[in-house]
Structure formats: C-alpha cells, structure tokens
C-alpha cells in the first residue's frame, strides 16, 4: 500500500506563467462542448454492470434474455443498461423475429476498454 506522501502534489516554489506553453495548449484544447461530451461518455464506463455487458458483447452478439441469464439480472435491469449504452453509441441492436440482438457499435468500444485495462494493470 502506498504511503500518503507518494500522492502529495508538488508545486512550484515561485509563480511563473509560461505564456508560450499556454498558447499552445489553448490552440490544441477541444471545444467545451466536446469536453463535456467526452466526460459524459466516460461516465457511462463508470458502472460495472455496463462494463460486464460490454465484456459479454466482446465475445458474441446476444439478446437481452442471454445477457440477463449470464449476468443473473432481470431483463428489465439489463434493458435499462443497454438503453444507456445505446444512447451513447456504444452498442447497436437488430431485430430477428421476436428477439432483439445487441452487439458492439464499433471497434472503438473494445479499444477504450482494452486501454483502460492496460492502464490499471500497470505497476
């Protein structure tokens, strides 16, 4: 376990603004609307149930019944989480007869999760 000192933030001994660096940062900074949308997207990943659903969808396209069975949840609870994932363009659905099958919206979803896993596994 890390000691508290390892997490303390160091700061400058004097105040010196580096205008050239700040100008570069301002030029590269996304618009406020994009930053807001990005923060909202990452909030979606803040729920372990939604992460579990995504891991199932990494392996196969499945219906709500399959997800509910695998996750040991009600279909209603799974549907609620799928709605959030779909609203955020992380999953897509298709109808086949009376069933609705869900899959990942695109390869970016897996990349985001893989990058997150890689980050938390670092020492």
Describe the structure.
The protein has six helices and three strands; from the N terminus they run αααβααββα. By secondary structure, it is mostly helical. It has one domain: Winged helix-like DNA-binding domain superfamily/Winged helix DNA-binding domain (Arc Repressor Mutant, subunit A), CATH 1.10.10.10. A three-stranded antiparallel beta sheet has the order 1-3-2. Helix 4 crosses helix 5 (75-87). The model has no long low-confidence stretch (mean pLDDT 93).
Describe how the helices and strands are arranged:
Layout: H1 19-28, H2 32-44, H3 48-59, E1 62-63, H4 64-71, H5 75-87, E2 91-96, E3 99-104, H6 107-121
Antiparallel strand pairs: 1-3, 2-3
Helix pairs in contact: 4-5
- Overall morphology: elongated
Radius of gyration: 20 Å
CATH T-level fold name: Arc Repressor Mutant, subunit A
Alpha-beta classification: mainly alpha
Provide the β-strand percentage band: 5-15%
How many beta-strand elements? Answer: 3
Total domain modules: 1
Distance between the termini: 12 Å
How are the strands of the biggest sheet laid out side by side? 1-3-2
Helicity, in percent?
Answer: 55-70%
Secondary-structure element string = HHHEHHEEH
Question: Which properties best describe this structure?
Answer:
11% strand, 123 residues, 3 strands, Arc Repressor Mutant, subunit A, single chain
What is this entry, summarized?
With 123 residues, the chain is mainly alpha-helical. It has one domain: Winged helix-like DNA-binding domain superfamily/Winged helix DNA-binding domain (Arc Repressor Mutant, subunit A).
């Amino acid at each position: 376990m890390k000691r508290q000192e390892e997490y303390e933030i160091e700061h400058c001994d004097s105040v010196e603004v580096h205008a050239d660096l700040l100008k570069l940062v301002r030029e590269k900074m996304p618009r406020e609307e994009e930053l807001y949308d990005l923060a909202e997207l990452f909030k979606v990943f803040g729920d372990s149930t939604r992460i579990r659903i995504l891991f199932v969808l990494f392996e196969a396209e499945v219906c709500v019944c399959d997800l509910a069975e695998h996750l040991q949840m009600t279909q209603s609870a799974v549907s609620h989480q799928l709605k959030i994932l779909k609203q955020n363009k992380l999953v897509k659905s298709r109808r086949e007869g009376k069933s609705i099958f869900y899959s990942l919206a695109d390869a970016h979803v897996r990349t985001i999760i893989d990058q997150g896993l890689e980050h938390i596994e670092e020492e």
